[in-house]
Amino acid sequence: MSDKHEKQKSKYTLDRQIPGAFDGETVTRRRFMTATVHTTGAIAAASFALPALGLALGPIFKSTPHRWETVGTVDNNYTPVVVTLTPGIGNAGEATVYVRKFNPEIDTDIYDRGKQFIAISNRCAHLGCPVRWVDAAERFICPCHGGVYNLLGVPVGGPPVRPLDRFYTRVVGEYVQVGPRFSVNSKLRPFSPRDPGEPLDGLGQYLYPSRPGAQKL
Amino acid sequence: MPKLPAPPLPSALKAPPPRPGEENGKATPVDHAKEAGITVVDWVDERTSLSGAARWLMFRKVPKGTNWFYTLGSATMFAFLSQAVTGVFLAMYYRPDASGGAYESIRYLTNDVFLGQFVRGMHKWGSTVMVVLVFLHMARTFFFGAYKYPRELNWVIGVVLLILTMVMSFTGYLLPFDQRAYWATIVGLNINGTGPLVGPYLSDFLRGGPEFGATTLSRFYAIHMLLIPGLLAVLIGAHLYLVAKLGTTAPPWQKAESRSELLEAEV
Q: How much is the ipTM here?
């Protein structure tokens, strides 16, 4: 240790022989000025950076109101109906939903009890391509990467990680209405809507949390 | 008869000696015109000292064995410049409107604008060329061992540049807003979503909401033409600075020349 450090042990600037030091002063004016300028700069930068960041990240936390759309007549077979997920952008905001009447012989899972209609999304649970119902195969088939689902929307082949998403349905008067989307795991247990490619079995439901703005129905 | 010396003239009567640089007569306007370029460069250099930096950057010593593989980095940079220039002019016609305006503006640009198809083609194919060149440049660096000390930081910057280039490709792919652009982006967004824990938030951020919406396209457009190009330009600058600062490596097959007479002399 040199003498220089020995001399600067005192916390008072007066004891450290700094020119112009005040009695009882512990922070040099140069140091105080530096800290002030840095703080001011940080506040100035944050005052435009934080609002801009909030503007970019805000939509993650935004909750969108539920939409209910009336669909036409529905029978025991899958009927494709087009619903609007995002209004105002034409076809890009639309999606197809396959709707059929509840069939107690097929829909035996406990989570389906008491339903009148089954509405299945055409959004593939692999990466979101549009699946279509093929009558001859009695399967939903995805054109992109070969995902195959059975009548209940449960994957029976290809890369999908969970069954096809479903939509809530309700009957208003004599009309069937399709409401918000929800996701299901392989036991058809309902979850808040997730994006495709996110498994919901086991740890999946914790690794892929639902949106902060998702509303319970 | 010896010649007598001439009497000394007063200095005021003597002809003045030629000014430096005027040995061949006074400078004419033609001479000034000939040197206009140098004059301008001198004027700037006197006030900025930029010529030193330019010499430092461009007149570097390169190792023996430097070959055409060493031009891949410059080629990538020129691909980026080409993308930047064509992109600026494409932006004069593009409209990021998800309800049909985007597709229509691209259709108009491609079919009706003079040279529109050509400039759009340069941008479209140029993006593929840039990705290919990035990977070739990376392979050259890897196989020549040019990532080793003291050039590790430049490798790291290069990897960030690679990622940003891929982000450019991903965000640019949506902009034509045709069926291929739309579905490829849906798939790409969902691939982003498969990242554990952060994935769902990342795809929500990219979409600007839970579903593909009206602002998704403008978000991609802003990222594609403002955010990432700015980052790319800054990082390319840092990448180049380090290349100039550290110099380039000799190819691995280049042997150090052992000059036997020197070795003997030292012994």
A: 0.85
